[in-house]
Design goal:
Blueprint (H helix, E strand, L loop, with lengths): L13 E5 L7 E7 L2 E10 L13 E8 L11 H4 L4 H16 L3 H4 L3 E10 L4 H22 L12 E9 L2 E4 L3 H4 L4 E8 L4 E8 L6 H26 L1
Parallel strand pairs: 4-5
Antiparallel strand pairs: 1-2, 2-3, 3-5, 6-7, 6-8, 8-9
Helix pairs in contact: 2-4, 4-6
Length: about 240
């Protein structure tokens, strides 16, 4: 039995609220159970120096957690003068995951920055950030297309992410914190709505795992991403 009483292949309740803030070109507040992440997308008419003049667009991301996103207060990273290693790793993952789902030629020579701020954490913050970040990005690109600044749709397929793992000897979908903290195997699966893989982060957290178990987790991830992609499309249509 899972701590949440969910079935092995059952996700947490997902809700998405767009236009949560008024200033960003794209915005989505995504809630996956008790994990809540605010994602905003900002369009800029510039690109990093290393692709300037190439005609290619760029998508990047920043990630952070509010001090009381967890059950004890975390010190703001700004107060220490630098980002922690976990923060840097996660925001790089978000950025490259979202870029993988964008036709950078069609986007044109501009940059879109996706900011992901964790308001409340209960496991799976990076997955929620990628899934919500794609929605914010999609809404920003919709504005570019409506204005005629982008002609061909650079985002034909959603990009979503979901966690899976081996908990109490069973493959389970969408780990919350109690499961994540005790899982023998923990993985994050990033893929498109058509199940093309972008990245898999997989590790044993106390026990090894077999190819059959890996395949079972892949099947669960595909199911979860299909549900998330449907929610993404509904939120941005």
């Amino acid at each position: 039995m899972r701590p949440s009483n969910r079935a092995l292949d059952e996700m947490r309740t997902v809700s998405i609220e767009t236009d949560f803030t008024k200033h960003a070109e794209g915005c989505a507040l995504i809630k996956m159970g008790d994990t809540h992440v605010l994602c905003t997308a900002t369009i800029e008419d510039r690109v990093p120096p290393f692709i300037k003049g190439s005609g290619l667009g760029w998508v990047t991301a920043e990630y952070g957690m509010l001090p009381r996103a967890t059950n004890t207060r975390m010190r703001r990273e700004a107060a220490s003068g630098k980002q922690g290693g976990r923060t840097v790793e996660i925001q790089r993952l978000i950025g490259r995951s979202l870029r993988a789902g964008v036709d950078r030629v069609a986007l044109g020579e501009r940059q879109i920055t996706v900011d992901c701020d964790v308001l409340q954490a209960d496991g799976g913050t990076r997955c929620a950030s990628i899934t919500g970040g794609w929605i914010a990005l999609r809404l920003a690109v919709n504005k570019l297309m409506k204005a005629g600044d982008v002609i061909s749709d650079p985002m034909p397929d959603p990009v979503a992410a979901i966690s899976c793992g081996i908990y109490a000897g069973q493959p389970v979908l969408d780990l919350d914190y109690p499961e994540d903290s005790e899982a023998g195997v923990d993985g994050n699966f990033i893929m498109t709505g058509s199940h093309q893989l972008i990245e898999i982060q997989m590790s044993a957290e106390g026990s090894v795992f077999s190819r059959d178990q890996m395949n079972a987790l892949m099947d669960l991830a595909e199911k979860g991403v299909s549900e998330l992609a449907a929610a993404q499309k509904a939120a941005t249509s």
